[in-house]
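Hey forum,

I'm writing up a methods section and want to include a predicted complex as supplementary material. The small molecule is zinc ion. I've pasted the protein sequence and the SMILES. Can someone with a working setup run it? I'll credit the forum in the acknowledgements.
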Amino acid sequence: MRIPIPCEDYKRYQENPKDFIPEHPTCLNNPRHKPYWNHRWERGFLPDHVHEVKLEIVQAYCKECHETISYWPEFVLPYQREALETHESVLIEHLQGISFREIGSKIGYDPRTISRWINLTLEQGVQLWGEVIGRILRVIGHESLPVVSRIDWRITQLLLAWLRRYAEWSCFPRLHRLIGLCNLFGEGSWDLWGAPLGNAKSRANAKSTLG
Ligand SMILES: [Zn+2]
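Reply by user p_vandermeer:
Happy to help. Structure tokens for the complex are below, copy them as they are.
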């Protein structure tokens, strides 16, 4: 399982990950379990599309569940080296009608890579919109779900709009990181958006969340 941790500035995390990581790990399956820190590793991260920095990621193990628990700073997506902001801005440009080629040329990526990122995101938007928006509505006190289109980009657009509303409601200041806010809000229930949900071993995968 993967637990996202709030972290506004990658440099501060890079310099001192301990400032952001809890003293004791938690097992999301059962808070009475006693997981222990068992591994730390470095992953490449591209804050500006060009320069790679190394980030330490820490991992715990729960003996009762036979499961590893990774702690991921908010600005990192599973299996992706590019910053979350990059994935989010690419998605928003796509929703605004800008072509894969044009988006790719701005940040030095093959349009096929851009299309892979976006397709993954749209697919996950469809898989999880009910779960995510349902929870937002419960928290901010609305009663009914908005009417949803079956078109993946429309659903994703709606998801981003609700995340923005939740960001404003909760005073989350990083509006270019709504995907990160979504993962924080999920508290480990889902792993948007870096990898297919199956690979990311999302807990949302365990029970059907389609509605
Ligand atoms: Zn456990």
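Some notes you might quote in the supplement: The beta strands are 2-5, 36-45, 53-62, 67-73. The chain has six helices and four strands.
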